[in-house]
Design a protein that fits this description.
The protein is of the alpha+beta class. The chain has a domain at 27-167: Sandwich (Immunoglobulin-like), CATH 2.60.40. It is 24% helix and 36% strand. The protein is built from two helices and 13 strands; from the N terminus they run H-E-E-E-E-E-E-E-E-E-E-E-E-E-H. The chain has helices at 2-26, 190-217, and strands at residues 29-30, 34-43, 49-50, 55-66, 82-88, 93-95, 99-100, 104-113, 120-121, 126-135, 142-150, 156-157, 160-167. Strand 10 (126-135) and strand 11 form a beta hairpin.
């Protein structure tokens, strides 16, 4: 009799434990991952934007901060915040899922941490993420939906989108080279001297000839 009672008690405990674990496992929900879209537009000298410029070596940093006290965070969070670094290569990046274990409204803000590249104008948009966690119709599990708004909840958005403006650094232009001075052309006076000498000789000969001719005539 005692053995049967002990076995019955053990069986009840096992069933209770299994039931408790099953209920607790069902009574939690993982939120969906939210895509993070980072767009880089090039602004040229004419203030015209060229969309979707790839900057593979550039990193953009984001942070998720809970606004609701006690709100859970994605795995890997530190110091009460969740951080992610995104490359400017248009790969898929996400806000990781969050596990909720009780109904409620959980609010967070998501923003970009401005970088140090002076050629980039960082988007300063701050999103509010509202996770609405509630019981399903049969009250045996939780469901979660996410609403994305601006910080003041004036607008709703489909995506978490950041558009950063990139101005290509100016390439220094080499100054036009100064023209090399053209050396002054030296005039060769040797030929002129010869001509003058010949002219003098011819002139002298002419004068002498005229004088001799005049004497003969006299």
């Amino acid at each position: 009799m005692k053995k049967k009672m002990i076995l019955t008690a053990i069986l009840v405990m096992v069933i209770g434990i299994c039931t408790f674990n099953t209920v607790n496992a069902a009574y939690e929900v993982q939120s969906e991952k939210l895509p993070i879209k980072t767009i880089i537009n090039l602004v040229d000298d004419d203030s015209e934007e060229k969309e979707n410029v790839v900057l593979e070596n550039e990193t953009f940093n984001y942070v998720l901060t809970p606004l609701t006290e006690g709100a859970p965070l994605p795995a890997g969070s530190q110091d009460g915040k969740w951080n992610i670094s995104v490359k400017g290569d248009y790969r898929d990046y996400f806000i990781d899922s969050i596990k909720f274990i009780r109904p409620g409204i959980y609010e967070y803000k998501f923003e970009q941490i401005p970088g140090t590249n002076e050629d980039i104008q960082y988007d300063n948009m701050v999103y509010k993420l509202i996770y609405d966690v509630s019981n399903n119709e049969t009250y045996d599990s939780l469901v979660c939906k996410v609403i994305i708004t601006d910080e003041e909840e004036n607008y709703k958005y489909e995506d978490v989108l950041y558009t950063n403006l990139y101005t290509s650094p100016e390439v220094p232009v080499d100054p036009e080279p100064k023209p090399e001075p053209v050396p002054e052309e030296k005039i060769d006076t040797s030929d002129i001297n010869v001509l003058l000498y010949v002219a003098i000789v011819v002139g002298s000969a002419y004068v002498i000839t005229r004088k001799i001719k005049s004497k003969k005539e006299n």
